[in-house]
Fold this sequence. Notes:
This protein has 240 residues and is mostly helical. It has helices at 3-9, 14-38, 42-55, 57-66, 71-80, 87-105, 109-136, 149-207; strands spanning 211-214, 225-228. It is 72% helix and 3% strand.
Amino acid sequence: MNISDVFAKGGLAMYPLLLLSFLSISVVIERSWYWWNLLKGEREVSGRVIESARRDWNAAANLAGQSTDQPIGRFLNSALELKKPEPEVFQLALEATAQEELAAMRRGDKILEAAIALSPLLGLLGTVLGLISSLGSIRLGDLGTAGTENVTLGISESLISTATGLIVAIVSLAFYRVFQGLVSGQAKLFEKSGNELELIYRKDWAAQGGARLEKPSGNSNAPLSVKPQSETTDTPEHQP
């Protein structure tokens, strides 16, 4: 018995199950490729930016700006690229970007959730419809005779849709949990990196009596620098 025969004997419920399986496999392939590319060197980027921020905000801003092809780079750069940020604004920039990046990482979850919830139900529906069709053809006089052999065969075939629905749901659930675990790991990395960067910034801010990150005038692409609020524009820049 080949796949086409199994599909044909599964009944009408096999068609929506085929659609759900196709959508689920597409999401699994796309998300697997996404995570494969995302996880390479991400913690290294975070560590380099945080370490640079302890010594030189300019270097930290440059490193974050060069890593915007990765979520962690965009996350850290969202605060470092601000002009004259208050500590609260610095924190809000990190939080807003983290929510945006985590939402992008959850793309495709709704499709997997639909496959997990609907596949067993569609499989059960196909089995019920198959049983109704098989049992509806039984006559009382045929019980215990060779005439019931086709009914037994029909009942066994009607279970194909249930098995298919369970397979689709189990595979979708397995990958869904894996992707959720990866998103949870990214959330922890964002929280750890953001807290460290914010703590460094607040310490420098307090140490300098309210310093502000700002970009030198005349060059919007220039790296970030730190200047105390109490100094005039003629005072040389002082970096944390």
